[in-house]
Design goal:
It is built from seven helices and seven strands; from the N terminus they run βαβαβαβαβαβααβ. The chain is α/β, with parallel strands linked by helices and 270 residues long. It has a seven-stranded parallel beta sheet with strand order 3-2-1-4-5-6-7, with helices on both faces. Strand 1, helix 1 and strand 2 form a beta-alpha-beta unit. Helix 3 packs parallel to helix 4 and helix 4 packs parallel to helix 5.
Length: 270
């Protein structure tokens, strides 16, 4: 533990698995206290069991205003304040193209993906603002390489994550100088994130080794990234070391900005 977040009171959504779980674990290691918010009650129990003195949990739905308000209140009651809000819960779109979505399917999937990936962020941010203003705290929103580049998600996930990047910039503008708002844009990562319910039959299950290889060959560093690979970016943005940073999106994606020079079939020997 380096203590970059010593005694920071934090709220992390989507904290029961994947990147959210890794962020919660790393924040505790850095000295923070964490309120973990997720629909997966069993996953929350496992997280709390690892950190019984440092984690409280809220089982709920980020699409619900009441659940978001309850999560903020739980964090404030448990820790006496709120310093950091991390909006991270998300669902994917199985890389489905627009022309492959029937109109009724498009409507359902849009509501599912934007409900979690955009509305959930807005409701969480709105619930957290009063507490963060009191502490001069910060927000961190999980974007994605799909919020920065085309081709790293399907049409709905890409649109939703571009919306998240817009939220980061607009909220940074609206909430300055009281609250800093930044984001992290992970690239393809080995997580358990599921597609939206209406798209879960698209493509069928694929072996984990195949998925890891697809991620590895798509980024110049050749990394099959894991959730823990991204946590340092969240730690930096949550810490006082980043007090001059707002409206920033840190790209933690294996170097996708350099991929135009890269042979995605396997890279080049130097």
């Amino acid at each position: 533990m380096t203590g970059w977040l010593r005694d920071k009171a934090t709220l992390v959504t989507g904290a029961a698995s994947g990147i959210g779980e890794a962020v919660a674990d790393r924040f505790v290691d850095e000295g923070a206290r964490v309120c973990a918010f997720d629909r997966d009650a069993a996953g929350l129990e496992r997280l709390a069991a690892r950190h019984p003195q440092h984690v409280v949990t809220v089982a709920g739905d980020v699409r619900s205003w009441d659940d978001n308000r309850r999560a903020v209140r739980t964090a404030a009651d448990a820790f006496g304040r709120l310093d950091v809000f991390v909006a991270n819960a998300g669902v994917g779109d199985a890389f489905v193209r627009l022309v492959d979505l029937a109109p009724d399917e498009l409507e359902r999937a849009f509501d599912e993906i934007f409900g979690v990936d955009v509305k959930g962020y807005l409701l969480g941010a709105r619930a957290a603002v009063p507490a963060l203003v009191q502490t001069g705290g910060c927000m961190i929103l999980t974007a994605s390489s799909a919020g920065v580049f085309a081709g790293t998600g399907g049409v709905l996930y890409t649109a939703a994550k571009h919306a998240v990047v817009g939220l980061i910039r607009q909220l940074a503008h609206e909430l300055a100088p009281k609250v800093r708002v930044n984001g992290v844009a992970p690239g393809g990562t080995l997580t358990g994130m599921q597609p939206a319910p209406s798209l879960r039959d698209r493509g069928g299950p694929r072996p984990e080794t195949s998925r890891a290889e697809r991620i590895r060959v798509a980024n110049p560093l050749g990394l099959a990234m894991r959730p823990s690979d991204h946590t340092a970016a969240y730690v930096l943005l949550a810490s006082d070391q980043a007090r001059a940073m707002t409206g920033v999106v840190l790209e933690s994606d294996g170097g996708l900005r350099a991929r135009g020079l890269w042979d995605v079939a396997g890279g080049r020997d130097l």
